């Protein structure tokens, strides 16, 4: 039906003017370059005055003419069900439009860096030389939005919340001016932590509220706290323009050596299931209800569970390509998905999207990475469990690789296929979207391969099927109606004092007290404290960037000085406070071993002292790569040193210097560790998964009482680590300290001793 264009579109120079059309059920408000339309008991619309979009009116309500054809199409009618709108738009989309929708961008920082990871240009120049604003679109962003029809963008670090909000408005206006007016769906990896240390949380450490990581929240054993995080996190995300969270990571952490252990919710399937459900409910619901303008799509990861990596080696690299199930226990790993994220308490019902992990799940269908595995994707996830949401590959699985030890493509099991053939195989397996791919060319080539095999009609239907799923997630969070932000509101919302306090309170609830000999804690304020500095060894990160060795303060000494009288020698002190990290025992692969004639595979160490894997498997459970001429990835009999052995030395040397005076040890843990090397030297031990120093000081002085519990076991030694099965939870012998306490799952102390409350009874 042709309907009239609304004439009350004001110029971009008018600010804050509100008009009501004669007899209409809406008001129109113009703020600088944006127009907002408020429908009575209906949707609020927002559009850019520079995009060419105008208003249509029908039944006295206003609608956006996104494709600028003067007709109210079904996808433009906010009164219709989302499913109907998505199907209508999918049919209108060209093959190129759908191919672009199936892309998820590589990591984008705002502004783009000048070189290295995430680098970009502005009018052909690096950002510092370009004269561009931090919120401007880069050349690469303009290209992938226009030439490649891409609409899903992953952002990492941002200069400020205001910059993120203005960039969002610029990107949305740019996309709105293109054919069909499909908005940008911006996403983020976790960003509420206190620092950024890896590719998968590169946006953390900014002005947003600071919480412990999900492993720290898991230590509260409180799904309600996890839900509160989701509710606050989603509000801050939407204020930044982020409508999809590439989280939560609900892999069951049954393998203690895995480098991504600290991103999980622990090793217990029941606890992880309850926490996963709470996280997704918190992010996806608006005001505790259905989808809305504060909802964020949750992309749970990594199906069918990335935790059981053989030997703990991670799937970001070819040496960690295999997940194994020696305990025949894949069901526990699926449980946080099938019983948690897919069975929500709230009305959004199930997580909006799922990301499979890089790994080949050994013995589960074809010997290919999960994103190519028809059995795990179509037969199990889609078929057995009836999952109908978006399936997005992890980043870069279709790219080539040249070495098992380089951070590059991860086409495990399909290395012999072309890039286009890999795309087609993933689509045929049931995937909808390709993470980290900015180029629609291979998707179009995959379409041709499908036409040759199945015919044009079937392949077009298959592409529309994915398009409907992808569009559904954009429609139901309201982006088609109003994707624009008020920059001042963003600044007021993100990291506000209320949200900061909630995050800080959660930090207090995440600190586990493992030892408190003779009730050393709590301490009196203004006692004299000796705080030795910590040596940080040189390291090399995933991108090959090295750091120089240095000696640093283990804590923010200005914070420590607010609570205690800091002295410079052990002799002056009443007690010592030592801050260390859990052992950094390597990644399980060493090129030096290869150069010496070995296979390159070495143990991952969870103790500070050197370790020789005399009891490791003679033959690995899985193995094989076109880049290797062997399949046995055993490391039996090999030795490995830990990078931060000096942390152990720091604790024990400090104890020698302090004599009978107490040594308090604070450990930032990234994964389980062997405490036998340091526990005898400590009067009290606190462990945390990333908190501000003030939270530690408040626990030490009794301003807050420790209440957290271990969401995983601390092993007695490396023998039990080697003996445990990668896919089985809670199967290690836990460490027992000098006070007779076992550092087992659900263990923790408060001022009265071992905690034995309802949480312990429920989950232990």
From TrEMBL:
Keyword Protein biosynthesis carried by entry: no
Organism expressing this protein natively: Maribacter confluentis
Main enzyme class: hydrolase
InterPro entries, A to Z: Cellulose_Degrad_GH3 (IPR051915), GH (IPR017853), Glyco_hydro_3_C (IPR002772), Glyco_hydro_3_C_sf (IPR036881), Glyco_hydro_3_N (IPR001764), Glyco_hydro_3_N_sf (IPR036962)
Family that this chain belongs to: Belongs to the glycosyl hydrolase 3 family.
UniProt-recorded name of the protein: beta-glucosidase
Region of interest (Disordered), residue spans: 115-139
Domain Glycoside hydrolase family 3 N-terminal: 137-471
Lineage start: Bacteria, Pseudomonadati, Bacteroidota, Flavobacteriia, Flavobacteriales
PROSITE patterns documented for this protein: PROKAR_LIPOPROTEIN (PS51257)
């Amino acid at each position: 039906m042709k309907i009239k264009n609304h004439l009350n579109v004001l110029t971009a120079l008018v600010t804050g003017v509100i008009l009501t059309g004669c007899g209409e059920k809406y008001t129109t408000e113009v703020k600088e370059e944006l127009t907002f339309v408020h429908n009575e008991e209906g949707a609020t619309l927002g559009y850019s005055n520079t995009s060419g979009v105008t208003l249509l009116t029908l039944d006295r309500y206003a609608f956006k003419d996104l494709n600028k054809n003067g007709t109210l199409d079904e996808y433009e009618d906010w009164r219709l069900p989302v499913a109907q709108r998505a199907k209508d738009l999918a049919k209108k989309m060209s093959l190129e439009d759908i191919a672009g929708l199936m892309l998820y961008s590589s990591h984008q920082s705002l502004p783009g860096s000048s070189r290295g990871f995430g680098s970009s240009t502005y009018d052909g120049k690096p950002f510092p030389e370009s004269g561009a604003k931090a919120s401007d679109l880069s050349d690469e962003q303009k290209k992938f939005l226009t030439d490649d029809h891409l609409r899903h963008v992953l952002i990492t670090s941002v200069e400020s919340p205001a910059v993120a909000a203005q960039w969002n408005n610029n990107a949305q206006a740019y996309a709105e001016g293109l054919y069909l007016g499909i908005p940008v769906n911006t996403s983020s990896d976790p960003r509420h932590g206190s620092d950024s240390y890896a590719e998968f949380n590169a946006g953390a450490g900014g002005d947003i509220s600071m919480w412990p990581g999900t492993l720290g929240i898991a230590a509260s054993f409180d799904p309600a706290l996890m839900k509160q995080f989701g509710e606050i996190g989603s509000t801050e995300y939407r204020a930044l323009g982020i409508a999809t969270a590439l989280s939560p990571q609900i892999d069951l952490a049954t393998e203690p050596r895995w480098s991504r252990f600290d991103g999980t919710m622990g090793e217990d399937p029941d606890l992880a299931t309850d926490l996963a459900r709470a996280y997704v409910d918190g992010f996806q619901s608006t005001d505790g209800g259905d989808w809305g303008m504060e909802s964020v799509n949750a992309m749970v990861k990594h199906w069918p569970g990335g935790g059981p990596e053989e030997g703990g080696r991670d799937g970001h690299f070819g040496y960690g390509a295999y997940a194994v199930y020696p305990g025949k226990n894949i069901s526990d790993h699926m449980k946080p998905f099938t019983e948690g994220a897919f069975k929500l308490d709230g009305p959004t019902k199930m997580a909006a999207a799922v990301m499979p992990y890089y790994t080949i799940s050994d013995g589960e269908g074809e010997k290919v990475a999960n994103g190519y595995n028809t059995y795990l994707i179509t037969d199990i996830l889609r078929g057995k469990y009836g999952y109908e949401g978006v399936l997005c590959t992890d980043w870069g699985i279709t790219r080539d690789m040249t070495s098992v030890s380089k951070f590059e493509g991860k086409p495990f099991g399909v290395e012999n296929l072309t890039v286009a053939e890999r795309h087609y195989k993933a689509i045929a397996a049931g995937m909808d979207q390709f993470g980290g791919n900015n180029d629609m060319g291979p998707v179009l080539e995959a379409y041709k391969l499908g036409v040759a095999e199945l015919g044009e009609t079937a392949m077009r239907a298959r592409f529309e099927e994915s398009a409907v799923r992808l569009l559904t997630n954009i429609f139901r969070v309201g982006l088609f109606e109003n994707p624009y932000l008020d920059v001042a509101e963003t600044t007021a919302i993100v990291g506000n004092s209320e949200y900061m306090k909630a995050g800080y309170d959660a930090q207090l609830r995440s600190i586990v007290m493992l030892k408190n000999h003779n009730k050393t804690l709590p301490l009196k304020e203004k006692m004299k404290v000796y705080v030795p500095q910590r040596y940080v060894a040189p390291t090399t990160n995933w991108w090959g960037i090295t750091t120089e060795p240095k000696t640093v303060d283990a804590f923010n000494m200005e914070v420590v000085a607010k609570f205690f009288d800091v002295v410079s020698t052990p002799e002056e002190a009443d007690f010592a406070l030592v801050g260390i990290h859990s052992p950094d025992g390597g990644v399980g692969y060493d090129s030096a071993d290869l150069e010496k004639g070995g296979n390159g595979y070495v143990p991952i160490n969870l103790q500070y002292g050197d370790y020789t894997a005399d009891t490791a498997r003679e033959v690995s459970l899985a193995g094989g790569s076109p880049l290797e001429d062997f399949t046995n990835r055993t490391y039996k009999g090999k030795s490995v040193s830990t990078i931060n052995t000096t942390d152990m030395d720091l604790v024990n040397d400090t104890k020698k210097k302090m004599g009978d005076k107490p040594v308090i040890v604070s450990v930032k843990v990234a994964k389980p560790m062997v405490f036998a090397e340091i526990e005898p030297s400590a009067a009290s031990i606190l462990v945390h998964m990333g908190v501000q120093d003030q939270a530690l000081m408040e626990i030490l002085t009794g301003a807050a009482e420790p209440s957290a519990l271990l969401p995983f076991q601390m092993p007695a030694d490396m023998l039990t680590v080697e003996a445990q099965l990668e896919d089985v939870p809670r199967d290690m012998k836990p460490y027992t300290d000098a006070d007779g306490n076992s550092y087992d799952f659900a263990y923790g102390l408060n001022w009265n001793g071992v905690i034995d409350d309802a949480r312990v009874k429920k989950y232990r």
